[in-house]
Design brief:
Rossmann fold; three-stranded antiparallel β-sheet; 36% helix; globular; Rec A Protein, domain 2; nine-stranded mixed β-sheet; single chain; 10 helices; alpha/beta
Length: 352
């Protein structure tokens, strides 16, 4: 059998991505998260395109404003067409703009119900008139079915889960074939079936859990940052932790990314993700930046390749923003090497 001719026959009949030979490499395009620690933790350098990811967490933790808007902003920097399907009607133009989103080129839809939301999502993954590259769906936890809105109809048990199950199934293949990345924002609920008190889970049934390439649980870290404002101590930022609960790419299951986010800009503290601290911490973690006592060493740190004290590193990176790209590239190379070694070890483990 001429295998190539066999595969090409099905490609001509059903499309270019309808058939492959098993040894053909199918790379995953990514959109940077805008957070180096998270890029590294994901194991592929960003959010995958052509696949769905789920980000869930507590209220007011920054799922949309921190992670969602950052994904849109980073995708737009790559020249990609983005869109938002907003079931929670509270898109904040000023906040999104401050997070780097170009709102003038961002279509936003406000569907009346979950049925319409998933139909719009299906159309956007297939629309030839305005091909979308990255879509933010906000949020699964706010979905209500069309039948639940009818006053004369009784709410159907499991209706929301069935809607999500059917909706997700309908978009997975078209999203992959058209290389459309989808981020589903979700809420969290107490897990009453858990034997340990305090565990949480995302609502909506199992379909999205199975379909998502990554599931990220965003929660607060230990650190909270305050500042004196009008004579009062006010919280201006906090540490966030992104725990990877599912990973179908890379060897990142159970990994976590820690970073600082400031929702208020004050003297000495930026608005948004603290990029400088993110770069330094991730550089130290991956040994791209080396520390010996009070000295931080990297070939890009001035003429001698070293700086004394954390504040000196902060100032140097702030004054030399190109260093961010240099360190990021090196961190991603470490990530690729780590992944290659993990994949090379798999056949050896399976043989034991």
């Amino acid at each position: 059998m001429d295998l190539d001719a066999f595969v090409n026959k099905y490609r001509k009949k059903y499309g270019d991505k309808a058939a492959f030979v098993g040894n053909e490499h199918q790379p995953v395009d990514v959109v940077p998260t805008g957070i180096l620690a998270l890029d590294y933790a994901l194991g592929i350098g960003g959010w995958p395109r052509g696949h769905a990811v789920e980000v869930y967490g507590a209220p007011n933790i920054g799922k949309t404003s921190t992670v969602g808007y950052s994904a849109i902003a980073q995708a737009q920097k790559l020249g990609l067409q983005c869109g938002v399907i907003n079931i929670e009607p509270r898109f904040d133009k000023s906040w999104a703009t401050r997070r780097g989103v170009d709102v003038d080129s961002l279509p936003i839809m406000y569907p009346d119900n979950g049925n319409d939301a998933f139909e719009i999502l299906r159309e956007w993954t297939m629309d030839p008139d305005l091909p979308f590259d990255y879509i933010l769906f906000d949020s699964i936890g706010a979905i209500v079915t069309e039948s639940d809105l009818r006053p004369e109809a009784a709410s159907r048990v499991g209706g929301q889960s069935k809607l999500i199950t059917d909706g997700v199934k309908r978009i997975l293949m078209s999203a992959w074939k058209n290389n459309v990345g989808i981020m589903f924002i979700n809420q969290q609920r107490d897990d009453h079936n858990a034997r340990i008190q305090g565990l949480v889970e995302s609502p909506g049934g199992w379909a999205l859990k199975h379909a998502a390439m990554y599931r990220i649980h965003l929660k607060p870290g230990r650190e909270r940052y305050t500042a004196k404002i009008d004579g009062d101590d006010r919280v201006i930022g906090r540490e966030l932790v992104a725990n990877i609960k599912k990973s179908a790419a890379g060897d990142s299951l159970g990994a976590a990314a820690r970073f600082d986010f400031y929702h208020m800009e004050t003297e000495g503290n930026p608005f948004g993700v603290d990029v400088t601290q993110d770069i330094i911490n991730t550089g130290l973690k991956t040994k791209v930046i080396n520390q010996a006592g009070a000295y931080y060493r990297h070939e890009a740190f001035g003429e001698k390749g070293q700086l004394q004290g954390r504040k000196a590193v902060d100032a140097f990176i702030a004054e030399n923003p190109k260093v961010v790209d240099v360190i990021r590239d090196e961190v991603l190379e470490v990530m690729k090497d780590k992944r290659a070694k993990a994949q090379a070890a798999k056949p050896q483990l399976e043989a034991l």
